[in-house]
Amino acid sequence: MQRVEKQKTTIPFWRDERILGVLGQAIFVFVVLFVGWLIYQNMKAGLAKQGITLSYSFLKGISGFDIAESLFAYNRSSSYWQAYLAGLLNTLSVSIVGVIFATILGVVLGVARLSTNFIINRLAAFYLELIRNLSLLVFLIFWYLGVFLKLPLVNEAIIWPGDIILSNRGVGIPWGIPTASFPTFRLILLAGFIFALIVFFSLLAYSRRTGRAPLTSLWTLAAFLLVGLTGWFALPEKPLVLDLPFVKGLNLSGGKILSPEFMALTSGLVLYTSAFIGEVVRAGIVSVSKGQVEASRALGLNGFQTLRLIVFPQAMRVIIPPLTSQYLNLIKNSSLAIAVGYPDVFYVSNTIQNQTGRAVEMISMVMLTYLIFSLITSVFMNWYNQKIKLVER
Amino acid sequence: MRKTFWLVSLLVVVSLVLAACGSPAATEEAAAPAAEPEAAAGPAGFGSTLATVKERGSLICGANSQVPGFGFVDADGNFSGIDVDYCRALAAAIFGDAAKVEFRPVTAAERFTALQSGEIDVLSRNTTWSLARDTELGGNFTSTTFYDGQGMMVPVDSGITSLEGLEGGTICVQTGTTTELNLADVMASLGISYTPAVFEDADSTFGAYAESRCDAVTTDKSGLVSRRAVLADPAAHVILDVTMSKEPLGPMVRHGDDQWFDIAQWTVFAMIAAEEYGITSANVDEVKSSATNPEILRLLGVEGDMGLKLGLSNDWAYNIIKLVGNYEEVYNRSLGPDTPTYIPRGLNSLYTDGGLLYAPPVR
C-alpha cells in the first residue's frame, strides 16, 4: 500500500498531466502578455520618436466644432469628451431604434415566409433574397442619396396625414413636449412599471401553482397602461403637449425632426438586418417538429394558442443565439454612419482624431466602446438564452 | 466566464497589434535606435527621410484626388494640380526625374496620421498651416504655396447674399478640416444658428450640396471655385463675398528630420525665385549658360555648392525648373486663365507685384 503511494508521488512533474496542463496554460498566458507588452513598448517608442506622447488629457480641451445632432446641449465650446459622448448617445439611439424595429419586421417576415398564402410567401421570399444579397454600404447610400435626399425641397414638402412632413431636410413628426407636470408623470410611470412587475410575477406564480397559462404579457401591459393612463388624466396639467412640425424659413421646425442622415441609417440598418432576422425566425419555427403542432391541435388548442404556447417557446431556443449575432451586427454596422454623414461615435471620433491628431487614443476608445456595447448585448442575450433553453434532466 | 476572459485578452492583443501596425515606420525605426547616433551627423532622425526616399527610388506624396486645380485624379489615373506639381518638383530636386513620385490619395481625416506614421514622405494636400497642426500633430509646415481664405457658396436662386441670410439653415462642410472649426467660430461670433451637415470627403460634401441637402457649402475659396467648375450648372451657384478665415496652404513634413524639412521648403523657394528671375522651363538652359547674376548662378548650381548643402546634387533647382517649371508655370497649368478652375493670382503674386510670395536669398 505504502509502496503504491510512494510510486505515485515519485511521478516526475514533467509527466504529470495536471501540472503540464496548468504549466501549458501559464506559458501561453505569459507569451500572450509578453507579445502584447512588446507591441505596446514598440508603439510607445515609435510615438516618442515622433514626439507624440500617449495621453487622454486632450479630451478636456475645447472641441471647436459643431455636431449636427446631439441628445444634449452641445456647441463649439463643449469639450472633446462631450463631443465623444454626443456621438456615443447617437450610436446608442440608432442601435436601440434599429434593434426594436428590425426585430418586429424580422418576426413578421419570418412568419410571412412560412405563410401558406402564395403571394405573401413569395413576396417575403423575394424580399429576403434581395436584401440579404446586397452590400449594406451600397444599401445605405441608396437610402441616403436615392431616397431621403430625393424628397422635395422644404418649401415644396409633402405633408402626410397625421402631420408628418417629408422633405430633403428631414422628416418631421409630431412629438410630445414635456410640461411642468412631466417629472411627476415620470414618477407615476415608474410606479406603473413596478405594479406591472408585481402583476407579472404573481401571474407567473399562479401559472406555476395551477398549471394554467394566463395571458401574462397582456395583463402586465394592461397593468402598466392602467397606471399610466390614470396618471395622465388625473394630473391637472397634461404632462406632454403635442407639438406639430412645420416649415420655417430654410428648415423644418417644431415636433421632432429626424434628419435625412438618421433616417437613411436607421431604415437601411432595419431593413437589412430584418432580412437576416426573418431567416433566423423561419429557421426557429421550422425546427419545431410538426408532431408538436399536431399534438397541440389534437389537445384542442387553436392556431394562435399553438403558436404562442407550443411553437414560439421551442423556436426561441433555436432563434436566440443567431439573433444575438444579428443584434451585434446591427450595432457594429451602425459605424457605417460615416458614409451618410450621421454623427455616430465612430464619426465623431474620426473628427476628434483629425482635429487633435490623437489617432491611437481615439481608435482605442472607439474599439473599447464597441467592445463594451457588444459584450453587454451578449451577456444579456446569453442570460436570456440560459433562461429559456431546454432544461435537461 | 473563462471564454469571456479569453475573448477580452485576445481583443486587447489584436487591438494593440493593429495600433502598432498603423505605424510601420515606427516599428522599423524603433528597432535600430542604438546604431544611429554614431552614423548620423546631426540630431536623431537627421537625414533619415532623404536616405529612405533615395533607397526606395521614389518619393511618396500624400495628395488630394478630389479638388481640381490642387490635387485631382482624372479618369486615366493621372494626377494634376499645384499641390501635385509641388511633389513632382520635390522628386525632380532629389532624383532629377519628376516622374519618380508615387501619389497616395489621403482624405482630410487620414492625412496627418499618414504623415506621422511614415506612410507618406510629404503631405501636399491643400492643408492649412495652423499652430496646433504645427506642434502637436508631429509635423512641420514648410512654406505657403497658396494663400487662401474660407468662403461660402450658395445657389443663386436662394437669394442669399450674406452669412446672416443663412440663419436657421443647413451648411455642408467636410470633417476634420480647419473649415469645420472656422465655420463654428464665425457663426458663433455672429450669433447665427445653423445646422452643420458634415461629410467624410469633398465628393460627398459637394454631392450632398448638389442634392440640396444644404443651403450652403463652405470650404476654402479655391476649393469652392474648383468644385463649382464640376457642378452640373456652375452658373447657378455663387460664392459669397465674405472671407471667413486665413488659410495658408502648403506642404507639411514630419517632425525630427531638419534636412528633409529644408529640402521641402527650398523646393518651394526655388520655384518662387525662378519666377522672380524670369527663369522658365523653356529658357532655363539658355539662362544657365548666359546668366551673369550671381544669385541666378548659385540657384542653378553653376556657382557654389548650394545643392550639396541641402544634401542634394548641385543642379537640384535646375531640375525643378527644367522638369516642372517655376511657380507661375505651375500655377497657370492648374489655376490659370485657360483652365476651368481659374483663380486670379491675388495674394499669390510675387511680392514685387503686390502679392505675398517671397523667397529668401540663395546664398
CATH class of the domain at 111-174 and 244-340 in chain A: Mainly Alpha
Strand content of chain B is: 15-25%
Q: What is the assigned CATH homologous superfamily of the domain at 111-174 and 244-340 in chain A? A: MetI-like
Mean pLDDT of chain B: 85
**Rough outline of chain A:** globular
Query: Helix coverage percent of residues of chain B?
Result: 40-55%
- For the CA atoms, what is the radius of gyration of chain B? 23 Å
Q: What gap, in angstroms, lies between the N and C termini of chain B?
A: 71 Å
Tell the overall outline of chain B. globular
CATH architecture of the largest domain in chain B: 3-Layer(aba) Sandwich
**Classification by helices and strands of chain A:** alpha+beta
Q: Uncertain runs of chain B with pLDDT below 50, 5 residues or more?
A: 16-42
Give the helix level of chain A as a range of percent: 55-70%
Quaternary structure of the protein: heterodimer
The CATH H-level superfamily of the largest domain in chain B is: Periplasmic binding protein-like II
Distance between the termini of chain A: 40 Å
CATH domain class name of the largest domain in chain B: Alpha Beta
Q: What's the total number of strands of chain B?
A: 14
The main sheet of chain A orders its strands as: 1-2-3-8
Mean pLDDT across residues of chain A: 86
